[in-house]
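Hey, resending since the last one bounced:
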Amino acid sequence: MIQENIKLKRATMEDIPSILEVEKCLAGTKIYSALTDKDEVIKEVENSTFYLIEKGSEVVGDTSYKIKGKNHAYISGLGIIPKFQGQGIARQTMKMILEELKNVKIIDLVTHPENEKAISLYKSFGFEQTGEPMENYFDDGEPRIRMVFKK
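The structure tokens again:
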């Protein structure tokens, strides 16, 4: 399902409350490490390309990435508020992010090994798992797997 009315809005400091609202909706599950601390969110907005995902005029999620080098980017987050999941929003968001990063040779990310929906989504775009799960990756007691997309 293609979501024609999905937009990425570059986050600014004024968007911190909206980002915290999205992240609080995603907190409490072991498969997503939510940014629930205001200082963490500020740091992420300052040090990455951070977007609010909008459907029409409503914020439905957020996503971010960091440029790590001339040919390397790291997708540091992609979260959709639960009531909007299953509508193709994450897929459309990934298409837009990968289009922005079309000149980057290596794109990587980490996800929880039990986050089957995310793993399936990333694999559908050509990401592949590398190595074994990394234990306690975000200091949350949970493992993560690294997935890489190479052009």
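Residues 82 and 110 are 20 Å apart (CA to CA).

Sorry for the duplicate.
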